Fold each of these.
Amino acid sequence: ETGYITFDPGFGNTGTCRSAITYMDGEKGILRYRGIPIEQLAEHSTFVETAFLLITGQLPTREELTRTSVYLNDFSPLHENMKAFYQNYPPKAHPMGILSAMVNAMRSFYPELIDLEEEMNKTYLRLISKIRTMAAMAYRISLGERVVYPRPDLCYCANFLNMMFDSVVVPYHVDDDLVRALNVFWILHADHEQNCSTTAVRVVGSGKVNIYSTISAGISALWGPLHGGANQAVVNMLEDIHKKGLTIKDCIAKAKDKTDPFRLMGFGHRVYKTYDPRAKIMKKMGDIILSKIKRKDPLLDIAQRLEEAALKDSYFKEKNLYPNVDFYSGIVLRAMGIPTNMFTVMFAIGRLPGWIAQWKEDVSDPEMKISRPRQIYTGHQERGYIPIDDRE
Ligand code: SDX
């Protein structure tokens, strides 16, 4: 009679769903996209190739990859009228709010959503291509700088960096190592099973909402500091430690003190109860990029000492708290010159192929039902209406 049903967002009665896209083993720290280990994809693949793998289930042939790149190039500019949206945002508007709105607006600017495989594949690529342009445009307009258009001669990642940083006085020099690092960064973020934002995409998509508005919901869900906003929260935390001269010992004590709101951002994970395999790769990338650009980042040193202290501490060991993907990702993004308020946007661009793949898996399932979780009712039992004059 309490209406008790497990959380059932159309995922069956156990609060879990069936999916063939990403495999995670939280105890062993394993992550595979369509069966391929993340370590091999990070070493050998590109973000565009990994996006194709996630969405179609197979690595592309050379011909498929070429065709994909042509579409990504053709779809890279935005509808000129979308620029008016940006110009009316206050300069300090957070780019995640702008991105969520712009992706939702795509439903109005690109209304043709033809439910044919070839047409839907183009829709996926339109999203993957334009999200880069939208992100870079938000950054440039927030600085009052001219918008840089995508170039047909640059690959997916180089185009993004050029749109972010090209300038009439100092033309952007595309650095192959940075382009490689950005490919790896986005590969590491491309999908992660049924995380908060992917669940939001599956729940919203289960109502047969158009893909643009569904992805927009995923972007909003990712924004929170406990989820995709953690990369920005980690760097804010490290900067705070640096500025205040907090000792590592202080930080570990604060993280353990339940009365203190301080949490070790970038640590802990709902599924990984060991080192997040992505964090290992991200940490190495941080070292490589910083040594290449010959820049020391005091925040990297703080992060490494924090990690070392936490991994030795009984509190963190007992609770299986290890660095997650966000702990070092901010360091990598800083080394690439990405501003802190764009960090979660970078996560969203990376996660887009995973959201699309998970949405596609759901909507192509003839058995799909609308998400309709139930509850354990804890409110009043039945009682009568009280006229206002009789209320105290
Ligand atoms: C992402 O789901 C995904 O896959 C997400 C993601 C993806 O790719 O989509 O991997 C991306 O979101 C990574 C996580 C980024 N968030 C953070 O780094 C924020 C800091 N981490 C925590 O807020 C927390 O660890 C979560 C939110 C990540 C996980 O939360 P859980 O599993 O619900 O853990 P919990 O809050 O129940 O904590 C269990 C215990 C608690 O102590 P007790 O109540 O048992 O005494 O561990 C403690 C917590 O207080 N704890 C921490 C901690 N994380 C958990 N204590 C200090 N510092 C932390 N970071």
Note: The beta strands are 22-25, 30-33, 36-37.
Amino acid sequence: RGTAPGTLPLAGRHVLVTSGPTHEPLDPVRYLANRSSGKQGHAIAAALAALGARVTLVSGPVALPDPPGVTVRHVETAREMLAASEAALPADAAVFAAAVADWRPAEAATQKMKKPADEAAPPMALVPNPDILATLSRHAMRPRLVIGFAAETEHVVEHARSKLARKGCDWIVANDVSGDAMGGAENTVHLVTDAGVEDWPRLPKQEVASRLADRVAEALA
Ligand code: CTP
Ligand code: CA
């Protein structure tokens, strides 16, 4: 569709973004989580809004302010993140940048777990969490453009390619997290699509975000 001069490229578009870790409770004071800071996902939400998109950001627990001009849904667990993401549909595009916990404790105790008299450690049974990206990629209200992330410490592009196929998304932003990417200010990513792989240089997370937002705008144009 043509863009009138002075009109932002994503004006009139709705984009869903997930960001941050999830916290999976073990009891009222303990949880299972990961080192995601939310910096990359939040920067993507802000960059999309700067291009004129209406953005719904579904965020796990992070120490970041809500990006200005973005509707933020705060959640804790993977199951809450899935519900909030589905509730945000329809969307023209979706970017799944969250580091969702793959498993959660099978049961969350309602009271704080106490050390047994014999000092033994309690067993911790885990069950798989729903895959939000895979679920929304195959959803009846699937966004036209679905973008996943792949956090890898080795064989980055290979693993990303298999995730692209397995999850049913359109693009994967493959993220080398072997260094300090989780929590750091910069990111080295590879954009993996059916058309091939683009290696982006190491960039500040804001710069990765604005390049990705530009690509989303091109794809939806
Ligand atoms: N993802 C998701 N829901 C999950 C797990 C992952 O939506 N329960 C999304 C992430 O937001 C990311 C993509 O799937 O966009 C890939 O996440 P990643 O952890 O790299 O892949 P997994 O399929 O969980 O595989 P593994 O952790 O074993 O590498
Ligand atoms: Ca995972």
Note: Helices lie at 39-50, 78-88, 132-137, 156-167, 205-220.
